[in-house]
Amino acid sequence: MRLIITKSYEELSKLAAENVANLVKVKPHAVLGLPTGSTPIGMYKELISMYRYGILSFRDITTFNLDEYEGLDKSSPNSYYKFMLDNFYDHTDIAKDKTNIPDGKATDIYKTCIDYEEKIKKADGIDLMVLGLGNNGHIGFNEPADHFPGITHRVKLHKETIKANSRFFNSIDEVPKYAITMGIRSIMHCKKIMLLASGKAKAEAIKKALKEPVTAKVPASVLQLHQDLTVIIDEEAASLL
Ligand code: F6R
């Protein structure tokens, strides 16, 4: 594991973007795994400015997002698809037909999940998966549990996740109760993983994930077993290490 502690969120975002850019420069057809949430917004901003300065093109990359809320249409202001349009896709030359996000409106969720896994396999796997970290140690929407879920699946969101994510909605009642997420096996199969965390609220989860025994009660702790993990966190998130 490579652990990088930055002075600030801005520095974290720059470093994360540089890691993505270094991969895309040597492998323009790279396959990226991408998160939503507050943490990666700075990284996306940096990547957008690299594109604007002509340093980087995303034309040939393929992306797979980690998760999507169940029941939200792509056009919903709170869908993760809309988040990706607003924070990344619409500001770069990315080919939208090469972007993938689980379909939150799927009628056959089981088939959607299997198809998502098949598509990842067909793309020859994910070269670099970027992850945020839930305050409760979740990655994607893999919530603390008694076992590590395998492949892409439907998940019931934990109360604390619903509460944490309610900041993006008009009220907590609007937050979907279920989501579709890549599983722990899908994540662990990625060739490289970069975990990002910023702020004091993440300090406890970072300590448990990186310094305590691997347990499904802290899903991110499984990342300790990955062969190519880079962790980039700011000083606040690292404050309990
Ligand atoms: C989002 C995702 C989640 C977030 C996590 C942290 O696609 O998979 O695991 O990464 O909830 O969210 P923020 O960055 O908003 O603190």
Shape: globular
Q: Which ions and ligands are bound to the chains?
A: fructose -6-phosphate
Please provide the ordered H/E string of secondary-structure elements: EHEHEEHEHEEHEHEHE
Spatial order of the strands in the main sheet? 1-10-9-6-2-3-5
Helical fraction: 25-40%
Tally of helical runs: 7
Termini separation:
15 Å
Indicate the mean pLDDT. 97
Helix-strand category: alpha/beta
Largest sheet: 7 strands, parallel
Radius of gyration: 17 Å
**Fraction of residues in β-strands:** 15-25%
Q: How many E-type strands?
A: 10
Poorly predicted regions are none
Overall description:
Strand 2 (31-34), helix 2 (41-52) and strand 3 (62-65) form a beta-alpha-beta unit. The longest helix is centred in the first third of the chain and has 18 residues, at 9-26. It contains 7 helices and 10 strands. It is of the alpha/beta class and 241 residues long. The chain starts with a strand and ends in a 7-residue tail after the last strand. The protein is globular and about 45 Å long. The model has no long low-confidence stretch (mean pLDDT 97). It has helices at residues 9-26, 41-52, 80-87, 109-122, 159-165, 184-188, 203-211; strands spanning 2-6, 31-34, 62-65, 67-69, 99-100, 128-131, 153-156, 178-181, 192-197, 229-234. The structure holds fructose -6-phosphate.
